[in-house]
TrEMBL record:
It comes from Streptomyces actuosus. The keyword Transmembrane helix does not apply. Coiled coil: none annotated. Pfam families: PDZ_6 (PF17820), Trypsin_2 (PF13365). It comes from the Bacteria. InterPro entries: Chloro_Bact_Ser_Proteases, PDZ_6, PDZ_sf, Peptidase_S1_PA, Peptidase_S1C. This is Trypsin. Residues 171-185 have a biased composition (Polar residues). Gene3D superfamilies: 2.30.42.10, 2.40.10.120. Residues 1-26 form the signal peptide. Residues 279-325 form the PDZ domain.
Amino acid sequence: MRRNARAALAGASVIAMVLGGTAAQAAPADDSPQDIFEKASPATVNVIGKKGSGSGFVYDADQGLIVTNAHVVAGEDALKAVIPGRGEVPVQVLGSDPCEDVAVLKLSTPQEDLTALEFGDSDEVQAGDEVTALGYPASLQSNVETEKPVYTSGAVQSPNVPADPSPSDPHFTSTIQHSATLNPGNSGGPLLDSDTEVVGLNTLQNPEAQGQYYSISSRHVRSLLKPLADGLKKDDPGWQLVSLDDQNATALFTDPDDQQAVADIQKRVTDAGQSGLLVYNVVTDSPAARARLEIGDVITSVKDTPVSTMADLCDVLQSAPAGSVLPLHGMYTVNAGATDEAGHVTKFGEEWDVQLRLSKK
């Protein structure tokens, strides 16, 4: 199943500093959005996989490190970044945390004279401040080799708010709510203040309200960069899930057949008085694959804890030690009629149990 980019796709004080390489120089206060765009666009990249695309930005030029949203790279076996003026460069995922929706990538080929963006202090952002968002809207992608990011501008509506956008998304503890439009494909791009400093990681929009967009605060993002760059993947078993409690679940998929399949599963499961998380992708050789999870399985509990939303699941994953084994309980749906290893023909709604071993870091 192919998932559509969601919303913006499609969730101690920070010291502003340059994390290596040639940094975009801070602009004078109240620089125009166009000026900010010109300074920041060389560091803003288009992250492209087989299933979709999004945005990201270089934050450490010496190491060739890029930060983006975890949902941008989820389920991808191969990724590349298109750097303005440089073309496509393969990238690898160093670390990913779907429960925080942040991932760190590394350019596979060293690049000279990269531009890195500078982080600002999101704690200093105030309501009414002007902000500029950069990214690569999917609808505008025609020639990825030559295109540049686009920008939108707006004002901060609330400088520090939690966000619970949908049952299929994690709980975001610290976001900046603003009016700078985020279109599908903008996820993972930078939200910049008037000094061309990153104050947020563009992530999502409020599906229930017009003109409300959310970027994970730079303070929170920066606290995750080192563990992710060091290979943190404990909370990423290599699956993609959608909550059957999500009223907009079918909108997450681009293929009409997938949309219909999800709608059918959602109706049958909920009509049976059940809820859970539907597996719609499993990465090869991931912890989820080794646990023999398959597309169409519905996870109903983890470690004897019922899970019907991503926030439920993340509560369990984030409290579990790295390398630990978690018992998963669920039910069959689209795999009904298949024969298991014991020769048993599975039926819709029949229950299963597996053991999931988390990554060691």
